[in-house]
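In the laboratory, one determines a bound structure by crystallizing the protein with its ligand and collecting diffraction data. In a computational setting the workflow is compressed into a single prediction: the sequence and the ligand go in, and a structural description comes out. We illustrate the idea with flavin mononucleotide.
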Amino acid sequence: MNKVLIINASVRKDKSHSRKLTQIFEENWKRKNPKDTFTAREVGLEEIPPINEKWIASAFVKPLERTKENQYGVALSDTLVKEFKEHDIYVLGTPMYNWSIPSGLKSYIDQLMRINETWKFRSGEPDGDYVGLLENKKMFILSSRGDTGYGENEKNGHMNFQTTYLKFVFGIMGIKDIKIISLDNEEFGGALFEKSKNEIYQRIQQI
Ligand SMILES: Cc1cc2nc3c(=O)[nH]c(=O)nc-3n(C[C@H](O)[C@H](O)[C@H](O)COP(=O)(O)O)c2cc1C
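The predicted complex, in structure-token form:
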């Protein structure tokens, strides 16, 4: 039995295509893995606060050495990290905004990137060698984008700071098994977008 964490990052609700992708994923996965459990983590419609000075003052202090005040600085981060670690499979639905990710998702990632919790320096001192602390995890990134051609050797590949960043940053945490499925062409609409949607829905249903 696996624990699946569904993370949605679009600031749109009913009109969101990335939410539709995570919904199709969940329905399909449930059908094939009826014993798995699902948790929803919202980072688009509900605000995840950005990290701040208090957060930094606590995050880099060992838990036993924290004052009461600096414990509060990381209280939400502790909750999010605990939830994240408790799950085995992550399904992340996200738009591309300005060639990157929505700010709520960035805040969420900043809250999760905790030294000695999700990653560490190999030697214990800043040495540029990062070791991920999450093992045996799997992630599906289901993205939605207005334009297309964002693949590695495609015309807009150099503008893709969305899936490339996500793969990199979750990789630093130790998540190496990451599958990316992107629904493109949203801004063109019409037959082209309908075709893209059908293809992507089918690919998700085949997982
Ligand atoms: C503020 C904003 C910025 C966007 N930036 C880009 C972009 O840089 N590249 C792109 O291909 N599409 C861009 N889009 C289009 C979205 O990626 C597309 O509408 C996507 O379907 C949004 O996700 P959602 O349907 O889950 O809300 C942008 C849309 C918005 C609202």
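The radius of gyration is 18 Å. Keep in mind that any predicted model is a hypothesis to be tested, not a measurement.
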